[in-house]
From TrEMBL, chain A:
Organism: Streptomyces liliiviolaceus
Region described as Disordered: 244-279
Record-given protein name: Phage protein D
Biased composition (Pro residues): 261-270
TrEMBL record, chain B:
Protein name (Swiss-Prot/TrEMBL): LysM domain-containing protein
Compositional bias of kind Basic and acidic residues: 25-44, 61-71
Lineage: Bacteria, Bacillati, Actinomycetota, Actinomycetes, Kitasatosporales
Composition bias type Low complexity, residue spans: 50-59
Disordered: region residues: 1-85
Highest rank taxon of the organism: Bacteria
Species the sequence originates in: Streptomyces liliiviolaceus
Length: 379, 130
């Protein structure tokens, strides 16, 4: 199974390219694909790098490259089918291309690098005012501009509701749309990212809490003889990563400043480990005194939740052996790592490495405490 | 917090709340709710419609050199599950062949040697929704 090249074995890769609407690429382009590396991270922009074989008289060198088939801002969609089930791995835009011409035949390559569709939101700086709109409605209003790229908003109401007062404060956007949306997400303890799929040409823009609920993915097995699917898995436990933020808020009427109570973070981050790590550091947030009270509370909650993940693991797996693609930004079970580190984890980021004959994934997972909460994981 | 989430399987109590696995043909089927006269709710999987047949992407057609790899001539000893293993790497994916060549009984696909059946391209399995 491992010797069959991609495209003829159980793993198939499909490329679609085009300016805004995409179409399947000519067969020669798929055949010339040497390697693909695709990164997806929670709360950050995804990237990709594809390398093509640049034959001297091939169709890429002769026609496609001069005609602008690989120009910047060309949209590219990569779909991978494992055992007849297809997944959209990437929906992005080309940013740069590199041509390495070589004296040795067969060693000339074309490398295209790019980022996922959120690059579109980062191109243009904009100043805009959003009177009387709570943060989630502001995000919706921004995302509506990008619907012609098939981006559907998947926006959640903020946990600490912040009713706007037009006569007190009007919220202003400076900078690009992506900066503003990410800033709003961070102030509420949310993440913002684009999830490609489910069909090619669509993607959903999630502005909400990380998905730490629901169905787990198929478990990662390590140290289980021939049942193990993960090549290696390293865990690190950083005790100083968690901090307890403190915020003071001043009442504009009475000028009395009060220390805000510590909010429970479980609505934003339901615990995955049985033994949560106590916070060693205590930090004071700046600038919360003059905000509205709800805003200060939301920021306190966000800071407490974001710093909660102290255990992080990283490893790599072979998709052919695992049998499934590990999806980022979802939960996965780990077994075989011992009583302390077994259990459910949140998949922070995944890097897909595809080349003919192999499909490897590097991943990082995280959670906030030792020991599993449940006695079993989904196999 | 008492209202945190169901770590074990809180969804188990609700019939039909579990989605079908990604590889299932019912993965995209809608889950309906039937309300009985006494008010209890029963969940059921709605009818699954086949993806439209015989109108592949025209651009798609232009770029393919011939029909190689898209058709299979049935030989003796072929079975739908063997073809599923051969073309998709998973014997449980035979239903993709049955979808592309609409037959009522999957055994009709391979019971006649010499018959030519369509093999759908990987990744073109109709409209998938999550």
């Amino acid at each position: 199974m491992f010797d069959v090249p991609v495209g003829q074995g159980p793993v198939h890769i499909t490329l679609r390219m085009g300016p805004k609407l995409t179409r399947p690429v000519p067969a020669e382009v798929t055949e010339a694909l040497l390697s693909a590396q695709i990164t997806a991270t929670a709360g950050e922009r995804g990237g990709f790098q594809l390398a093509f074989d640049l034959t001297k008289n091939g169709i890429i060198n002769r026609a496609l490259l001069p005609e602008g088939f690989f120009d910047p801002k060309t949209r590219i969609i990569v779909t991978v089918t494992v055992k007849g089930t297809s997944d959209v791995l990437l929906d992005g835009l080309i940013v740069r291309q590199e041509v390495g011409a070589s004296n040795q035949p067969g060693h000339s390559t074309l490398t295209v690098t790019g980022e996922d569709l959120s690059l579109l939101m980062d191109l243009e700086e904009r100043t805009d005012r959003y009177p009387n709109l709570p943060p989630s409605d502001r995000v919706l209003a921004i995302l509506r501009r990008y619907s012609d790229y098939g981006i559907r908003p998947d926006v959640y109401k903020e946990k600490v509701s912040q009713p706007p007062h037009q006569d007190l404060r009007v919220h202003y956007q400076t900078g690009t749309d992506l900066q503003y949306v990410t800033e709003l997400a961070r102030a509420n303890g949310y993440t913002f990212y684009l999830e490609p799929g489910p069909t090619p040409g669509q993607s959903s823009a999630r502005w909400g809490p990380e998905i730490r609920l629901g169905i787990r993915q198929h478990a990662l097995n390590v140290n289980m003889d021939n049942n193990s699917t993960v090549d290696q898995l390293t865990f690190s436990y950083d005790g100083t990563a968690r901090e307890e933020p403190q915020a003071r808020w001043q009442d504009p009427g009475t000028r009395v400043s009060t220390l805000l109570p510590q909010p429970p973070i479980s609505p934003l981050r339901p615990p995955l480990g049985r033994r949560p790590t106590p916070a060693l550091k205590r930090r004071t947030l700046t600038g919360t005194a003059k905000q509205q009270r709800e805003q200060a509370e939301a920021e306190l909650l966000a800071r407490a939740a974001v710093s909660a993940d102290v255990i992080s693991g990283s490893g790599s797996l072979d998709v052919n052996r695992h049998g499934y693609i590990l999806q980022p930004r979802q939960l996965v079970g780990v077994r075989g790592a011992g009583r302390a580190y077994d259990g459910d984890y949140y998949v922070k980021s995944v890097t897909h490495n595809l080349r003919p004959g192999s499909y490897q994934q590097n991943f990082t997972v995280s959670r906030e405490g030792l020991e599993a909460r449940s006695a079993y994981v989904r196999p | 917090m008492a209202d945190i989430e169901p770590y074990e399987n809180a969804l188990d109590a609700i019939p039909g709340a579990h989605p079908y696995p990604r590889s299932s043909r019912y993965h995209d089927a809608e889950i309906g709710i039937h309300r009985q006269p006494d008010g209890t709710e029963v969940r059921y999987t709605k009818r699954r419609l086949l993806p439209p047949l015989g109108q592949p992407d025209q651009l798609d057609q232009l770029d393919r050199p011939g029909d190689e790899g898209r058709r299979h001539t049935v030989g003796s000893g072929d079975r739908p599950d063997l073809l599923g293993q051969r073309y998709f790497g998973d014997p449980a994916q035979w239903w993709q062949l049955a979808d592309a060549n609409p037959v009522l009984d999957p055994r009709e696909l391979t019971d006649e040697a010499g018959k030519v059946i369509e093999v759908p391209l990987p990744g073109s399995g109709g409209e998938r929704r999550v």
